[in-house]
Design goal:
The protein has 492 residues and is α/β, with parallel strands linked by helices. Helix content is 46%, strand content 12%. The chain has 2 domains: 283 residues, 3-Layer(aba) Sandwich (Rossmann fold); 201 residues, N-(1-d-carboxylethyl)-l-norvaline Dehydrogenase, domain 2. Strand 9 and strand 10 form a beta hairpin.
Length: 492
């Protein structure tokens, strides 16, 4: 019988399961984290748990928080097990499980409760995993989206915010007025210069309602950039059964992840930080090159395999990587067009990093799905593919592969795979994307009319020619012919 996870049942877990050896009741409140999803618990919460297990950083306990209705379900699941989470590392050489105890509370899903928690002077870091699309970026200008209804509401009602950024402002205002030092705001989302993007959103929102507060934030609040990495699939019945059957734990919200993690942060924490370098995190003066390496090679690689694999009917990522054409397509695009856009990093081999990425994608234990990689393309393509395309165009290098990737996405947005099976909507802008994609059957350039996604790239003649040529090839001859054409270097 599986043991129901809780603080009181930790001693009853099988000996094969790791568990906190530290006193969770003695942990101090140090961090409020907004967005307690799988990635956070497999990554940041895991690092802190490792640190606490070493007997260090016990004043940096995690307080969970959420701002969306869906966060309430996660809070309810974790509340029933004293905020504990089972993390299973899916190592092909042998799975291992550990119960993570670094979260000690979870604020009620209420804006005022979140503001109150952040305003506590004991909180020195407020961290975020709210997805790449959660920062109110105007895709047309790549600037702050001041016209968004959520932003307009928070600007007009700063004491009754709806967004996490409005809550951060309300909490910072309280701390400023009370003479308390401000907390550091740390984004953990997959965004280029995530700290700078976060700072812009916070300060521009403040500027709309309280310019003096905006000035104070610019002078006193730190927003360090960071690069985070750990492939973490969604939790389904498959994962829950694994935790129950293999490890004897009844966990309402387990997490599975790959046995690889990387966390590189700018060392800019005026109110202090946990000594995470003791457990493998890297602190550097400038994270930008590490960040671009990961965003372009890993996230760009995910985008590269996602849409052709979906069109061919692959379900799991490791199955797609077992398809010789998909692996060859990934390697060719990375080496020909993605990696050449990166500046060297002392001591880092991009070729070795690519080999690591290929092996991680091919790990059969992870059970990551192609569907997950295809999610939210209208937000992910502008983050992971289009910047690479823009840099490549500036250098006058070939863009056939990148144009091919966008063509695969366009074909995917039509809503059926190559066997005629329906593809369920998985993008907030699905209806508009499908309309543009279907129109591209008559005019290959119709898809590029989506200015919200493509911006000025839509008018670039080199990209337009390559995209029209590649999309026509995919539509008329299919994914496999398109891949073979690219691999052979044939212009089609």
């Amino acid at each position: 019988m599986a043991v129901n996870l809780s603080e009181t049942t930790l001693s009853a877990l099988p000996d094969t399961v790791g568990r906190p050896g530290y006193d969770r009741g003695a942990l101090g409140r140090g961090i409020v984290h907004v967005g307690v999803g799988n990635f956070h618990r497999a990554h940041m919460a895991w690092y802190l748990d490792q640190l606490f297990e070493m007997g260090e950083g016990h004043d940096w306990g995690l307080i969970g928080a959420g701002v969306r209705p869906g966060d309430a379900a996660m809070r309810d699941r974790l509340a029933g097990q004293d905020w504990l989470t089972t993390v299973v590392e899916l190592d092909p050489d042998g799975l291992n499980a550990r119960v993570i105890g670094s979260m000690i509370d979870f604020v009620p899903i209420d804006p005022q409760a979140v503001v109150h928690a952040m305003a506590d002077p004991a909180i020195r870091i407020v961290s975020l995993t709210i997805t790449e699309g959660g920062y109110y970026v105007d895709a047309k200008t790549d600037g702050f989206d001041a016209a968004h209804p959520d932003i307009a509401h928070d600007a007009a009602h700063p004491d009754a915010p709806k967004t996490v950024f409005g809550m951060i402002l309300a909490a910072l205002r309280r701390r400023r007025d009370a003479g308390s030092e401000p907390f550091t705001v740390m984004s953990c989302d997959n965004l280029p210069e995530n700290g700078h993007v976060c700072a812009r959103t916070v300060t521009e929102l403040a500027q709309l309602s309280d310019p003096a507060l905006a000035d104070w934030i610019r002078r006193h609040v730190a927003f360090p950039n960071s690069m985070v990495d750990c492939i973490t699939p969604a939790t389904s019945d498959r994962e829950r059964s694994l935790v129950s059957d293999r490890f004897g734990i009844a966990d309402a919200a387990p997490v599975v992840c790959e046995p690889f993690r990387q966390w590189v942060l700018e060392d800019h924490f005026p109110q202090g930080r946990p000594p995470l370098e003791r457990v493998g995190a890297e602190f550097v003066a400038d994270v930008s090159r590490h960040e671009l390496m990961k965003l372009r090679i890993l996230n760009g690689g995910h985008a590269a395999i996602a849409y052709p694999s979906a069109l061919l009917g692959h379900h799991f990522v490791h199955d797609a990587m077992a398809d010789p054409q998909i692996e060859a397509w990934l390697r060719a695009l990375e080496t020909r067009e993605i990696i050449p856009t990166l500046q060297p990093i002392p001591g880092v081999s991009y070729d070795e990093y690519l080999e690591l990425i290929v092996s991680r994608f091919a790990n059969p234990e992870i059970g990551d799905t192609i569907l997950r990689l295809c999610l939210d393309g209208s937000n992910r393509q502008p983050k992971f593919i289009l910047p690479v395309l823009a840099d490549t165009l500036k250098s006058d290098a070939d863009v056939d592969g990148l144009a091919q990737e966008v063509a695969f996405w366009c074909r995917y947005c039509e809503g059926t795979d190559e066997a005629g099976n329906a593809i369920a909507p998985n993008d907030d802008n699905h209806a508009q994307l499908r309309e543009y994609a279907l129109a591209s059957r008559r005019d290959p350039l119709a898809f590029l009319q989506n200015e919200t996604v493509f911006g000025p790239l839509a008018g670039n003649p080199v990209f337009r020619e390559a995209f029209a040529r590649k999309l026509t090839l995919v539509q008329k001859q299919g994914v496999r012919t398109a891949i073979d054409t690219y691999l052979s270097g044939t212009r089609a």
